[in-house]
Amino acid sequence: CKVDLAFLMDGSWSIGKRRFKIQKEFLAEVAQAISVGVAGPMMGIIQYDDPVTEINLKTYSNSREVKSAIDKIVQKGGLSNVKALYYINKHYFSDANGNRGGAPNVAVVLVDGWPTDKVEEASRLARESGINIFFVTIEGPDDNEKQNLVEANFVDKAVCRTNGFFSLPVASWFALRKAVQPLVKRVCDTDRLVCSKTCLNANDIAFVIDGSSSVGTGNFRTVLQFVANITREFEISDTDTRVGAVQYTYEQRLEFAFGQYNNKAELLNAIKHINYWSGGTSTGAAITYAAEQLFSKSKPNKRKIMIVITDGRSYDDVRAPALAVHRQVIAYSIGIAWAAPDELEYIATDPDKEHSFFVDEFDNLYKFVPKIIHNICQEFNSQPRN
Ligand SMILES: *[C@@H]1O[C@H](CO)[C@@H](O)[C@H](O)[C@H]1NC(C)=O
Protein backbone atom coordinates (compact mmCIF):
# COMPACT_ATOMS: atom_id res chain seq x y z
CA CYS A 1 0.00 0.00 0.00
CA LYS A 2 2.30 2.74 -1.19
CA VAL A 3 0.31 5.95 -0.87
CA ASP A 4 0.92 9.44 0.48
CA LEU A 5 -2.04 9.71 2.80
CA ALA A 6 -3.25 12.92 4.43
CA PHE A 7 -6.16 13.20 6.85
CA LEU A 8 -8.08 16.41 7.29
CA MET A 9 -9.42 16.21 10.78
CA ASP A 10 -12.33 18.27 11.99
CA GLY A 11 -11.28 20.54 14.85
CA SER A 12 -14.41 22.68 14.92
CA TRP A 13 -15.99 23.62 18.26
CA SER A 14 -19.26 22.00 17.32
CA ILE A 15 -17.65 18.60 17.50
CA GLY A 16 -16.91 18.79 21.24
CA LYS A 17 -14.07 17.33 23.27
CA ARG A 18 -15.39 13.83 23.51
CA ARG A 19 -15.93 13.33 19.83
CA PHE A 20 -12.61 14.99 19.02
CA LYS A 21 -11.03 12.30 21.15
CA ILE A 22 -12.90 9.58 19.26
CA GLN A 23 -11.55 11.10 16.07
CA LYS A 24 -8.01 10.85 17.40
CA GLU A 25 -8.53 7.24 18.38
CA PHE A 26 -9.84 6.54 14.90
CA LEU A 27 -6.75 8.09 13.32
CA ALA A 28 -4.48 6.11 15.63
CA GLU A 29 -6.25 2.90 14.63
CA VAL A 30 -5.86 3.76 10.96
CA ALA A 31 -2.14 4.42 11.52
CA GLN A 32 -1.87 1.01 13.15
CA ALA A 33 -3.90 -0.85 10.53
CA ILE A 34 -2.13 0.65 7.56
CA SER A 35 1.46 -0.04 8.73
CA VAL A 36 3.18 3.25 8.08
CA GLY A 37 6.62 2.89 6.52
CA VAL A 38 8.90 4.42 3.89
CA ALA A 39 8.35 1.49 1.52
CA GLY A 40 4.59 1.62 2.08
CA PRO A 41 2.13 4.30 3.16
CA MET A 42 3.25 7.55 4.73
CA MET A 43 0.62 9.33 6.76
CA GLY A 44 0.07 12.92 7.81
CA ILE A 45 -2.65 14.98 9.46
CA ILE A 46 -4.02 18.49 8.99
CA GLN A 47 -6.50 20.00 11.40
CA TYR A 48 -9.11 22.45 10.09
CA ASP A 49 -10.98 24.79 9.92
CA ASP A 50 -7.96 27.11 9.92
CA PRO A 51 -5.66 24.54 8.40
CA VAL A 52 -2.69 23.55 10.54
CA THR A 53 -0.29 20.79 9.69
CA GLU A 54 -0.22 18.50 12.71
CA ILE A 55 1.88 15.81 11.11
CA ASN A 56 3.94 16.12 7.97
CA LEU A 57 4.03 13.24 5.55
CA LYS A 58 7.71 12.62 5.97
CA THR A 59 8.09 13.13 9.70
CA TYR A 60 7.30 9.64 10.98
CA SER A 61 8.20 6.39 9.32
CA ASN A 62 6.36 3.91 11.50
CA SER A 63 2.89 3.52 12.97
CA ARG A 64 4.04 3.79 16.56
CA GLU A 65 5.51 7.27 16.08
CA VAL A 66 2.47 8.46 14.15
CA LYS A 67 0.20 7.23 16.92
CA SER A 68 2.12 9.00 19.63
CA ALA A 69 2.05 12.22 17.58
CA ILE A 70 -1.72 11.86 17.15
CA ASP A 71 -2.07 11.52 20.88
CA LYS A 72 -0.57 15.00 21.32
CA ILE A 73 -2.91 16.79 18.92
CA VAL A 74 -4.94 19.54 20.61
CA GLN A 75 -8.32 20.70 19.34
CA LYS A 76 -8.06 24.12 17.68
CA GLY A 77 -11.73 25.03 17.32
CA GLY A 78 -13.40 27.07 14.58
CA LEU A 79 -15.95 26.06 11.97
CA SER A 80 -16.22 23.00 9.76
CA ASN A 81 -14.76 24.74 6.75
CA VAL A 82 -13.38 22.40 4.21
CA LYS A 83 -11.57 25.19 2.38
CA ALA A 84 -8.58 23.46 3.95
CA LEU A 85 -8.58 21.46 0.73
CA TYR A 86 -6.97 24.48 -0.93
CA TYR A 87 -4.23 24.21 1.61
CA ILE A 88 -3.44 20.56 0.94
CA ASN A 89 -3.45 21.25 -2.75
CA LYS A 90 -1.05 24.17 -2.60
CA HIS A 91 1.12 23.36 0.38
CA TYR A 92 0.73 19.97 1.90
CA PHE A 93 1.56 17.63 -0.96
CA SER A 94 4.77 19.42 -1.87
CA ASP A 95 8.02 17.59 -2.37
CA ALA A 96 9.54 19.54 0.51
CA ASN A 97 6.84 18.17 2.79
CA GLY A 98 7.55 14.60 1.81
CA ASN A 99 5.39 14.04 -1.27
CA ARG A 100 7.12 11.10 -2.91
CA GLY A 101 5.80 11.46 -6.43
CA GLY A 102 5.79 7.71 -7.04
CA ALA A 103 2.93 7.19 -4.58
CA PRO A 104 -0.64 8.34 -5.20
CA ASN A 105 -1.75 11.35 -3.16
CA VAL A 106 -4.77 10.59 -1.04
CA ALA A 107 -6.65 13.05 1.18
CA VAL A 108 -9.32 11.79 3.55
CA VAL A 109 -11.65 14.50 4.84
CA LEU A 110 -13.35 13.75 8.16
CA VAL A 111 -16.46 15.86 8.66
CA ASP A 112 -18.72 16.10 11.66
CA GLY A 113 -22.17 16.59 10.14
CA TRP A 114 -21.58 18.75 7.11
CA PRO A 115 -19.16 21.44 5.98
CA THR A 116 -19.92 25.08 6.73
CA ASP A 117 -18.57 26.17 3.37
CA LYS A 118 -18.70 24.99 -0.24
CA VAL A 119 -16.42 22.16 -1.19
CA GLU A 120 -16.93 21.79 -4.89
CA GLU A 121 -14.28 24.12 -6.27
CA ALA A 122 -11.57 23.34 -3.75
CA SER A 123 -12.13 19.63 -4.35
CA ARG A 124 -12.05 19.94 -8.08
CA LEU A 125 -8.76 21.83 -8.02
CA ALA A 126 -7.27 19.24 -5.69
CA ARG A 127 -8.46 16.40 -7.92
CA GLU A 128 -7.09 18.08 -11.00
CA SER A 129 -3.69 18.25 -9.41
CA GLY A 130 -3.84 14.53 -8.83
CA ILE A 131 -5.14 14.22 -5.27
CA ASN A 132 -7.64 11.42 -4.58
CA ILE A 133 -10.25 12.72 -2.18
CA PHE A 134 -12.25 10.56 0.23
CA PHE A 135 -15.02 11.91 2.44
CA VAL A 136 -15.87 10.29 5.75
CA THR A 137 -19.01 12.04 7.02
CA ILE A 138 -19.97 11.30 10.59
CA GLU A 139 -23.56 11.90 11.63
CA GLY A 140 -24.33 13.51 8.30
CA PRO A 141 -27.55 15.43 7.66
CA ASP A 142 -30.86 13.63 7.97
CA ASP A 143 -33.80 14.56 5.75
CA ASN A 144 -34.83 17.47 7.97
CA GLU A 145 -31.32 18.80 8.25
CA LYS A 146 -30.66 18.75 4.53
CA GLN A 147 -32.18 22.21 4.19
CA ASN A 148 -29.38 23.56 6.39
CA LEU A 149 -26.66 22.51 4.02
CA VAL A 150 -24.50 25.18 2.43
CA GLU A 151 -24.19 22.93 -0.59
CA ALA A 152 -26.56 20.08 -1.38
CA ASN A 153 -24.91 16.74 -2.12
CA PHE A 154 -21.56 18.11 -1.03
CA VAL A 155 -19.95 14.68 -0.97
CA ASP A 156 -20.87 13.93 -4.57
CA LYS A 157 -19.47 17.29 -5.58
CA ALA A 158 -16.21 16.68 -3.78
CA VAL A 159 -15.29 13.17 -4.82
CA CYS A 160 -14.36 11.93 -8.20
CA ARG A 161 -17.01 9.26 -8.67
CA THR A 162 -20.45 9.12 -7.24
CA ASN A 163 -20.50 5.32 -7.03
CA GLY A 164 -19.70 5.34 -3.31
CA PHE A 165 -16.08 4.25 -3.51
CA PHE A 166 -14.75 7.61 -2.34
CA SER A 167 -17.37 8.31 0.30
CA LEU A 168 -17.95 6.64 3.64
CA PRO A 169 -20.97 7.84 5.58
CA VAL A 170 -20.84 6.82 9.24
CA ALA A 171 -24.07 6.90 11.25
CA SER A 172 -22.63 7.89 14.61
CA TRP A 173 -19.34 8.76 16.24
CA PHE A 174 -19.48 5.54 18.19
CA ALA A 175 -19.57 3.57 14.95
CA LEU A 176 -16.48 5.27 13.55
CA ARG A 177 -14.16 2.45 14.55
CA LYS A 178 -15.97 0.16 12.16
CA ALA A 179 -14.87 2.37 9.29
CA VAL A 180 -11.15 1.73 9.88
CA GLN A 181 -10.84 -1.47 7.86
CA PRO A 182 -13.08 -0.46 4.94
CA LEU A 183 -11.28 2.86 4.64
CA VAL A 184 -7.80 1.31 4.75
CA LYS A 185 -8.83 -1.20 2.13
CA ARG A 186 -10.01 1.54 -0.20
CA VAL A 187 -7.12 3.97 0.16
CA CYS A 188 -4.75 1.08 -0.52
CA ASP A 189 -6.56 -0.02 -3.66
CA THR A 190 -4.17 1.95 -5.85
CA ASP A 191 -5.63 0.59 -9.09
CA ARG A 192 -8.88 2.35 -8.29
CA LEU A 193 -7.20 5.61 -7.36
CA VAL A 194 -7.25 6.59 -10.98
CA CYS A 195 -9.79 9.35 -10.88
CA SER A 196 -7.33 12.02 -10.03
CA LYS A 197 -5.63 11.86 -13.34
CA THR A 198 -3.95 14.83 -14.88
CA CYS A 199 -2.50 15.32 -18.31
CA LEU A 200 0.95 14.95 -16.78
CA ASN A 201 0.51 11.85 -14.66
CA ALA A 202 -1.76 9.52 -16.54
CA ASN A 203 -0.03 8.45 -19.74
CA ASP A 204 1.94 5.73 -21.39
CA ILE A 205 4.02 7.61 -23.95
CA ALA A 206 5.91 5.83 -26.72
CA PHE A 207 8.52 7.67 -28.75
CA VAL A 208 9.08 6.17 -32.18
CA ILE A 209 12.39 7.59 -33.34
CA ASP A 210 13.72 7.60 -36.87
CA GLY A 211 17.37 6.47 -36.77
CA SER A 212 17.90 6.52 -40.56
CA SER A 213 21.17 7.56 -42.21
CA SER A 214 19.84 10.91 -43.36
CA VAL A 215 19.50 12.10 -39.76
CA GLY A 216 23.19 11.98 -38.93
CA THR A 217 24.89 11.77 -35.55
CA GLY A 218 24.62 15.41 -34.53
CA ASN A 219 20.95 15.74 -35.43
CA PHE A 220 20.16 12.45 -33.75
CA ARG A 221 21.50 13.96 -30.55
CA THR A 222 19.13 16.91 -31.02
CA VAL A 223 16.23 14.49 -31.46
CA LEU A 224 17.17 12.77 -28.20
CA GLN A 225 17.25 16.16 -26.48
CA PHE A 226 13.80 16.83 -27.85
CA VAL A 227 12.57 13.48 -26.49
CA ALA A 228 14.18 14.27 -23.13
CA ASN A 229 12.69 17.76 -23.03
CA ILE A 230 9.18 16.43 -23.60
CA THR A 231 9.70 13.65 -21.06
CA ARG A 232 10.92 16.11 -18.45
CA GLU A 233 7.52 17.83 -18.39
CA PHE A 234 5.69 14.72 -17.15
CA GLU A 235 5.40 13.14 -13.73
CA ILE A 236 7.23 9.89 -14.06
CA SER A 237 6.68 6.77 -11.98
CA ASP A 238 5.04 3.39 -12.27
CA THR A 239 1.72 4.84 -11.13
CA ASP A 240 2.10 8.08 -13.08
CA THR A 241 3.30 8.60 -16.63
CA ARG A 242 5.53 5.89 -18.11
CA VAL A 243 7.70 6.29 -21.19
CA GLY A 244 8.97 3.76 -23.72
CA ALA A 245 11.07 4.19 -26.85
CA VAL A 246 11.60 2.47 -30.18
CA GLN A 247 14.27 3.36 -32.71
CA TYR A 248 13.83 2.31 -36.29
CA THR A 249 15.52 2.13 -39.65
CA TYR A 250 14.45 -0.72 -41.97
CA GLU A 251 14.35 -2.60 -38.73
CA GLN A 252 13.08 -1.79 -35.28
CA ARG A 253 14.68 -1.88 -31.89
CA LEU A 254 13.06 -1.58 -28.47
CA GLU A 255 15.25 0.91 -26.63
CA PHE A 256 13.26 0.61 -23.42
CA ALA A 257 9.80 -0.55 -22.40
CA PHE A 258 7.08 1.19 -20.36
CA GLY A 259 8.02 1.01 -16.73
CA GLN A 260 11.60 -0.07 -17.35
CA TYR A 261 12.76 3.24 -15.90
CA ASN A 262 10.43 4.48 -13.22
CA ASN A 263 11.97 7.71 -12.18
CA LYS A 264 12.80 10.76 -14.18
CA ALA A 265 16.56 10.75 -13.64
CA GLU A 266 16.99 7.15 -14.85
CA LEU A 267 14.65 7.71 -17.74
CA LEU A 268 16.46 10.83 -18.94
CA ASN A 269 19.73 8.99 -18.63
CA ALA A 270 18.39 6.11 -20.73
CA ILE A 271 17.21 8.54 -23.41
CA LYS A 272 20.60 10.19 -23.51
CA HIS A 273 22.29 6.83 -24.06
CA ILE A 274 20.24 5.66 -27.02
CA ASN A 275 22.74 4.75 -29.73
CA TYR A 276 22.21 6.10 -33.19
CA TRP A 277 21.54 3.21 -35.54
CA SER A 278 21.66 4.53 -39.12
CA GLY A 279 19.95 2.76 -42.03
CA GLY A 280 16.71 2.97 -44.02
CA THR A 281 13.30 4.39 -43.06
CA SER A 282 10.37 2.02 -42.50
CA THR A 283 8.03 4.16 -40.47
CA GLY A 284 4.96 1.96 -41.03
CA ALA A 285 6.65 -1.15 -39.66
CA ALA A 286 7.94 0.89 -36.73
CA ILE A 287 4.42 1.98 -35.77
CA THR A 288 3.22 -1.61 -35.85
CA TYR A 289 6.23 -2.63 -33.79
CA ALA A 290 5.49 0.06 -31.17
CA ALA A 291 1.91 -1.21 -30.93
CA GLU A 292 3.10 -4.78 -30.40
CA GLN A 293 6.06 -4.15 -28.14
CA LEU A 294 4.84 -1.18 -26.14
CA PHE A 295 1.12 -0.51 -26.29
CA SER A 296 0.14 -4.15 -25.90
CA LYS A 297 1.71 -3.86 -22.43
CA SER A 298 0.08 -0.56 -21.56
CA LYS A 299 -2.13 -0.40 -18.47
CA PRO A 300 -5.86 -0.01 -19.12
CA ASN A 301 -6.15 3.18 -17.08
CA LYS A 302 -3.35 4.96 -18.95
CA ARG A 303 -3.74 7.31 -21.84
CA LYS A 304 -1.79 5.93 -24.74
CA ILE A 305 0.24 8.49 -26.64
CA MET A 306 2.60 7.79 -29.53
CA ILE A 307 5.05 10.41 -30.76
CA VAL A 308 6.65 9.57 -34.10
CA ILE A 309 9.69 11.63 -35.08
CA THR A 310 10.96 11.30 -38.65
CA ASP A 311 13.04 13.24 -41.15
CA GLY A 312 12.09 11.51 -44.39
CA ARG A 313 9.60 9.67 -46.51
CA SER A 314 8.93 6.13 -45.41
CA TYR A 315 9.92 3.17 -47.59
CA ASP A 316 6.79 1.36 -46.53
CA ASP A 317 3.11 2.24 -46.17
CA VAL A 318 2.31 4.23 -43.03
CA ARG A 319 -1.40 4.61 -43.58
CA ALA A 320 -2.66 1.14 -42.62
CA PRO A 321 -0.39 0.76 -39.56
CA ALA A 322 -1.38 4.25 -38.38
CA LEU A 323 -5.09 3.57 -38.82
CA ALA A 324 -4.73 0.36 -36.85
CA VAL A 325 -3.21 2.12 -33.83
CA HIS A 326 -5.54 5.12 -33.89
CA ARG A 327 -8.22 2.98 -32.30
CA GLN A 328 -6.36 2.89 -29.01
CA VAL A 329 -3.57 5.44 -29.33
CA ILE A 330 -3.39 9.21 -29.72
CA ALA A 331 -0.70 9.69 -32.32
CA TYR A 332 1.50 12.73 -32.84
CA SER A 333 3.83 13.10 -35.79
CA ILE A 334 6.85 15.35 -35.83
CA GLY A 335 8.38 15.80 -39.26
CA ILE A 336 11.74 17.37 -39.92
CA ALA A 337 13.31 18.55 -43.19
CA TRP A 338 12.49 15.87 -45.79
CA ALA A 339 9.54 14.35 -43.97
CA ALA A 340 6.48 13.88 -46.21
CA PRO A 341 3.49 16.04 -45.22
CA ASP A 342 0.94 13.48 -46.43
CA GLU A 343 2.53 10.78 -44.28
CA LEU A 344 2.68 13.03 -41.25
CA GLU A 345 -1.05 13.51 -41.59
CA TYR A 346 -1.74 9.81 -41.97
CA ILE A 347 0.27 9.10 -38.84
CA ALA A 348 -1.36 11.80 -36.73
CA THR A 349 -4.68 11.45 -34.97
CA ASP A 350 -7.37 13.86 -36.25
CA PRO A 351 -7.51 16.83 -36.21
CA ASP A 352 -4.11 16.85 -37.91
CA LYS A 353 -3.27 20.42 -37.12
CA GLU A 354 -3.25 19.58 -33.42
CA HIS A 355 -1.28 16.37 -33.73
CA SER A 356 1.09 16.92 -36.60
CA PHE A 357 4.05 19.29 -36.72
CA PHE A 358 6.67 20.09 -39.27
CA VAL A 359 10.00 21.84 -38.80
CA ASP A 360 12.38 22.76 -41.53
CA GLU A 361 15.50 21.94 -39.57
CA PHE A 362 16.52 19.94 -36.52
CA ASP A 363 17.75 23.04 -34.74
CA ASN A 364 14.18 24.32 -34.56
CA LEU A 365 12.74 21.22 -32.94
CA TYR A 366 12.98 22.73 -29.46
CA LYS A 367 10.26 25.26 -30.36
CA PHE A 368 7.64 22.51 -30.46
CA VAL A 369 8.16 21.15 -26.96
CA PRO A 370 5.76 23.57 -25.20
CA LYS A 371 3.24 23.29 -28.03
CA ILE A 372 3.10 19.51 -27.81
CA ILE A 373 2.72 19.53 -24.02
CA HIS A 374 0.05 22.18 -24.33
CA ASN A 375 -1.89 20.17 -26.89
CA ILE A 376 -1.65 16.95 -24.88
CA CYS A 377 -3.01 18.75 -21.82
CA GLN A 378 -5.68 20.64 -23.68
CA GLU A 379 -7.00 17.48 -25.26
CA PHE A 380 -6.94 15.72 -21.90
CA ASN A 381 -8.78 18.52 -20.12
CA SER A 382 -11.44 18.80 -22.78
CA GLN A 383 -12.57 15.22 -22.23
CA PRO A 384 -14.95 13.99 -19.56
CA ARG A 385 -13.08 12.95 -16.45
CA ASN A 386 -15.23 10.38 -14.76
C1 LIG B 1 16.05 21.05 -24.66
O1 LIG B 1 16.09 21.86 -23.50
C2 LIG B 1 17.32 22.55 -23.33
C3 LIG B 1 17.28 23.22 -21.97
O2 LIG B 1 16.13 23.97 -21.83
C4 LIG B 1 17.50 23.53 -24.47
O3 LIG B 1 18.72 24.24 -24.32
C5 LIG B 1 17.50 22.75 -25.78
O4 LIG B 1 17.55 23.65 -26.87
C6 LIG B 1 16.25 21.89 -25.91
N1 LIG B 1 16.39 21.08 -27.11
C7 LIG B 1 15.36 20.58 -27.76
C8 LIG B 1 15.66 19.86 -29.03
O5 LIG B 1 14.21 20.68 -27.38
TrEMBL record:
Which residue ranges does the record assign to the VWFA domain? 4-187, 204-372
The protein's matches in SMART domains, at most eight in alphabetical order, are given as: VWA
Stored CDD domains:
vWA_collagen
Under the heading Gene3D superfamilies, the entry gives: von Willebrand factor, type A domain
Q: What PANTHER family is this protein classified in?
A: COLLAGEN ALPHA, PH DOMAIN-CONTAINING PROTEIN
| Protein name as it appears in the record | VWFA domain-containing protein
Organism in which the protein naturally occurs: Monopterus albus (Swamp eel)
